[in-house]
User: Fold this.
Amino acid sequence: MAEIKNVAVVTRSSHERQALEPFEEVLRRYRLQGFSKQRLDNRIVLRASGYFQFGDLRVNTETRHIIIEVDHGGVTNLVKYWYCLKKGLIKNPIVLIHLYRKNTEGDYASHIELWEFLKKQMGRKLDDRFTAEIFTYHPDRIRENLADAVNLFERLLLS
Assistant:
């Protein structure tokens, strides 16, 4: 049997977890509860066998849901809220803070263009029950790139 030498072990970091950390710090500072992960208390049940995750991080207030979604492309995590609000699966209005990871300036330009288009359509169709903002970040500059998103999150929690 051949001996293997000089094998580098690569650990995979969770960009989603890293992107959520500054938002979780805000929750801890104000001693507020957030819901996250694929747990039972963070699901929107569709039918007996299906569900959507109700945000990568969500805070429920008396009047709305403040939701953080972390993605690296696509519009599913935007459109699912249109579906859920229209079907009555979610009652309170939603404020979505959508975070897109970009490794280069041109990454996901078409996805972001579609996201902006869909957000406008959703705003028209859902009246004041849905608002959303998109923020992009580079994995090496997460806190710097997401400072405005974290500030928005904090203002929403305090308003």
